[in-house]
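Q: Could you fold this chain for me?
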Amino acid sequence: MQTELTNVADHMKELGLGALTHAMRLSLYYSYENAFWGDLSVLHGTHAAEILIKARIAAEHPLLIFADIPRSTQTIGSLLAFEDLIQKGRTIDFQDLPERLWATTGQQLLELEVYKKFGRLRNTIQHFASPAVDSSVHTLEFVFKVLDPFLFENWGLYAIDFNEEFGDHYDHIFDTLVQNNLRPRLSPTAAEYWHSPDFRPNTDAPQGYAEWFGQEMRRAGWPIN
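A: Sure. Below is the predicted structure, expressed as C-alpha cells.
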C-alpha cells in the first residue's frame, strides 16, 4: 500500500464524525439569521454518512472506495501514486455505497429504504428547492435509524453523543426524540443524564415509547423505576 494511503481510513472516520456532529447541531436547533439550517442538516447528514461508510470500506483497503482507478498508462510514474488517485480517480457515489460496504465487509445497512429516501431528499434540496416537509426530522430519522447502528457495529459509538451544543445537548434532545418517536441506542452518558426523574416520556408519548425507554435505560446500565 502507498504510504500516503496508510491513514486514509482513520482520517475519513474523524472527518465523518465531525460532519455528523454538525448535522446534529443543524437538525436540533434553529437560526433566526439562516433559515436553511434544516436543509443544511440534510446535506451534512448525507456527507457524514458517505465519509463514514467509505472510512469503513477503506479500512479493508483504501482503493476499495474508488469506482474508477487510473490505468497504468495514466499514472505519473511506474506505480499508482496518491497524486494519480487525486487527479484521475473517482470514488463511489452515495447510492452505491451500501452494496460496496456489503461486498467488502459483509455488513448490510439497516433501514436501506430510509438511506435511499434520504439520498433523494438531499438531491432535491441541493438541485431544486426546499421540500415542504421538515428537513430536520428527516435528518434525525436518518441518523438514528441508519447511522446509529452502523457507528455502534463498527466503532462502538453512539450517534446520540455527537452534537456541537455540548452544554445542554441531552436536555434539548430528549423531547425531540419522544415527539418524533425516534428510538436510538442510548449511550451510558445519555442514560446517566436521563436517569433523573425530570426525563420521562409523558402520557401523550407514542405508543410503546415509555416501555422502550425503560428497556433501553436498563440496557445502558441505568435502570429506572
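A (continued): The two ends are 54 Å apart (CA to CA).
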